[in-house]
User: Which sequence fits this backbone?
């Protein structure tokens, strides 16, 4: 897998989303550059999912700008997202991946071998022929990652990919995140798990009530948080 950085940095400038008079994102300014995963944390309702979907282009901004690699307003093709509860196609695991490869424009002659490579990457090569809907929750999430990686993305957005998974399945997902990050894919991931953020993050983005509270390298965030909201969140206290 090779993911050039021509689509980075990803820049959000005063990104604001309002729905039914409720401000969901409140003038977020953020730059996402190459390197280790950017992990977005915050309490429920803080805007994590909305931020990822807006960056992906799924939700339009009410105001502000999203700029990829210095180009405005065009977004790149090579970005992908995995949702917390991905939908599985009614076909085998391998066929799910081949479908994603076809959608990405990969020639038919290359799809079988490429699908096998992606299934090996996510540890599902022995389950290639199993119906996707019969896989466990953790296996389905790994299959969703393989489908997303079929696009050979520059940036991979992950929306709480280990929510509700057991520790074994969580570790499997984290290992994949680390592997694709090491291959040059920029991972932008939301999570409610501070331990996971410590294990994976190169930088941390803390959101609260739609506002960007902190955006710092992970070691600085956990050792020396700058804001009271960050200190409370790290300590497990309720943010109101």
Assistant:
């Amino acid at each position: 897998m090779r993911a050039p950085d021509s689509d980075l940095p990803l820049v959000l400038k005063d990104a604001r989303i309002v729905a039914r008079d409720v401000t969901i994102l409140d003038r977020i300014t953020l730059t996402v550059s190459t390197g280790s995963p950017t992990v977005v944390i915050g309490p429920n309702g803080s805007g994590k999912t909305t931020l990822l979907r807006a960056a992906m282009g799924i939700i339009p901004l009410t105001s502000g700008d999203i700029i990829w690699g210095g180009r405005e307003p065009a977004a790149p093709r090579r970005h992908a997202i995995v949702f917390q509860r991905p939908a599985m196609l009614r076909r085998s695991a391998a066929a799910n991946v081949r479908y994603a490869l076809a959608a990405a424009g990969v020639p038919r002659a290359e799809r079988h071998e490429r699908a096998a490579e992606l299934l090996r990457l996510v540890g599902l090569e022995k389950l290639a022929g199993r119906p996707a809907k019969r896989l466990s929750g953790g296996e389905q999430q790994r299959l969703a990652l393989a489908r997303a990686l079929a696009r050979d993305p520059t940036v991979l957005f992950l929306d709480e990919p280990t929510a509700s998974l057991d520790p074994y399945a969580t570790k499997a997902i984290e290992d994949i995140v680390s592997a694709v990050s090491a291959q040059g894919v920029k991972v932008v991931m939301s999570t409610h798990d501070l331990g996971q953020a410590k294990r994976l993050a190169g930088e941390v983005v803390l959101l609260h009530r739609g506002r960007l509270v902190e955006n710092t390298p992970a070691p600085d965030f956990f050792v020396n948080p700058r804001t009271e909201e960050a200190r409370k969140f790290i300590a497990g206290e309720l943010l109101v």
